């Protein structure tokens, strides 16, 4: 048995040496190395979920206040994709987690900057009794929010109604964000504390922006 294994090993070594001396072998090797990532990419595209994302809920019509004291409501958001996040100015004991979510939201805004008015980011307070428009304004400045990213508060009963639509508990900042389509339908939830969540969100944004998505 040992003799057979040695003989087999010697044959493989001889074959490897012979192949290494043939230019055709290296050509095939190089082509394979370059085409493998492309093949994997094509396979990954085939494995993506269907373009028609599920509908997970509906967001009611609302009118609230943004960080600039202006109104933000369903009328402005209709016809656009938007991503909702949920935080508070006084976020203890979840401040580190809340800060991480806001940092990821800023990255999302940067990576989707070329979409212009096709996408909005909306950060709702989960503490409507405390977080006035002025306080949300200070929070937005900390994160360099632009016109496309709104920090929203307003009458507590109205804010609570919207939070219920997203199944978000009051006074608890969330690591989870929601993707909403132009018909005010919730099409996905993404836990930004999870590896790959931002990439999944960007992928689904792309799918919904495609005609028929």
From the alpha carbons, calculate the radius of gyration and give it in angstroms.
Answer: 25 Å
The rough form would be described as: globular
Strand order of the largest sheet: 1-8-7-4-5-6
CATH superfamily of the largest domain: Glutaredoxin
What percentage of the residues does DSSP assign to strands (E)?
Answer: 15-25%
What is the CATH topology descriptor of the largest domain?
Glutaredoxin
Q: Indicate the mean pLDDT.
A: 81
CATH architecture of the largest domain: 3-Layer(aba) Sandwich
- Give the N-to-C terminal Cα separation: 62 Å
The overall number of domains is 2
Individual helix count: 7
Structural class: alpha/beta
Order of helical and strand elements: HHEEEHEHEHEHEEH
Helix content: 40-55%
Largest sheet descriptor: 6 strands, mixed
Low-confidence stretches: 25-50
* E-strand count: 8
Q: Given this structure, which CATH class of the largest domain is correct?
A: Alpha Beta
């Amino acid at each position: 048995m040992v003799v057979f294994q040695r003989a087999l090993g010697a044959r493989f070594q001889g074959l490897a040496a012979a192949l290494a001396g043939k230019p055709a072998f290296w050509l095939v090797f190089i082509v394979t190395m370059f085409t493998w990532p492309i093949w994997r990419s094509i396979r990954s595209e085939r494995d993506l979920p269907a373009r028609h994302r599920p509908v997970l809920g509906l967001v009611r019509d609302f009118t609230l206040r943004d960080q600039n004291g202006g109104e933000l409501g369903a009328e402005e958001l209709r016809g656009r994709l938007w991503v909702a996040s949920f935080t508070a100015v006084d976020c203890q004991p979840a401040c580190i987690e809340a800060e991480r979510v806001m940092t990821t939201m800023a990255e999302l805004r940067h990576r989707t900057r070329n979409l212009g008015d096709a996408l909005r980011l909306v950060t709702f307070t989960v503490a409507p009794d405390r977080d006035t428009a002025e306080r949300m304004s200070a929070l937005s400045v900390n994160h360099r929010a632009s016109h496309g990213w709104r920090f929203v508060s307003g009458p507590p009963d109205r804010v609570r109604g919207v939070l219920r639509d997203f199944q978000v508990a009051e006074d608890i900042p969330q690591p989870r964000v929601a993707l909403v389509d132009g018909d005010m339908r919730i099409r996905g939830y993404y836990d930004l504390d999870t590896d790959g969540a931002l990439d999944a969100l960007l992928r689904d944004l792309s799918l919904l922006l495609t005609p028929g998505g």
